[in-house]
Amino acid sequence: MTTFASGTDTLTRDALTVLQPGFTGTTAPDWLLRRLGEGLASVGLFGRNIATAEQLASLTAQLRAERDDILVAIDEEGGDVTRLEVRTGSSFPGNHALGAVDDVDLTRQVARELGRRLAACGVNLNWAPSADVNSNPSNPVIGVRSFGADTGLVARHTAAYVTGLQSVGVAACTKHFPGHGDTAVDSHHALPRIDADLPVLEERELAPFRAAIAAGSRAVMSAHILVPSLDPDHPATLSARILTGLLRGELGYDGLIVTDGMEMQAIAGTYGIERGSVLAIAAGADAICVGGGLADDETVRRLRDALVTAVRSGDLPEERLADAAQRVRALAKWAANAATAAAADGPDAPSDGGVRTDVGLVAARRALTVTGAADFVPLTEPPYVAAFTPTANIAVGDETPWGVAAELLRLLPGTTTGSLTGDDAGRTALAESAGRRVVAVVRDEHRHPWMANALDTLLAARPDTIVVEMGIPQATPRGALHIATHGAARVCGLAAAEVIAGA
Question: How far apart are CA 171 and CA 338, in angstroms?
Answer without folding.
Answer: 9
